[in-house]
Recover the amino acids of this structure.
């Protein structure tokens, strides 16, 4: 983890990194930045005109209560799959309910 980026709010992984649109090899400096989770979930922030803005926005999302709730649901699902080999209907219903609220809140 670099740039003081918080762990991924969706999967909890800390393999989170800054990416930009620059091409150092041909001398084109970066003008836009975004944050990507390399932990497998592939979450990606929006694109920002400064590195610090991308960091701030990512870290704000990381402490978003709804994102925290989704991360907890994913951990529950993962745990149940590992222990039982299936996910209980209650866990799925709770996760779907939070996901629906999340979509409505971010429209
Ligand atoms: Zn992730």
């Amino acid at each position: 983890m670099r740039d003081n980026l918080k762990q991924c709010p969706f999967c909890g992984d800390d393999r989170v990194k800054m990416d930009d649109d620059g091409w150092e090899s041909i001398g084109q400096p970066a003008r836009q930045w975004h944050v990507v989770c390399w932990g497998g979930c592939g979450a990606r922030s929006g694109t920002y005109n400064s590195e610090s803005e991308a960091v701030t926005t990512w870290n704000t999302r990381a402490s978003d209560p709804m994102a925290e709730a989704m991360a907890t649901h994913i951990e529950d699902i993962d745990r149940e799959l590992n222990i039982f080999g299936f996910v209980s209907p209650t866990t799925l219903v709770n996760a779907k309910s939070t996901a629906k609220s999340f979509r409505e809140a971010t429209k």
Summary: The first strand starts at residue 16 and ends at 20. The CA atoms of residues 52 and 71 lie 24 Å apart. Helices lie at 51-62, 65-84, 89-105. The chain has a mean pLDDT of 86.
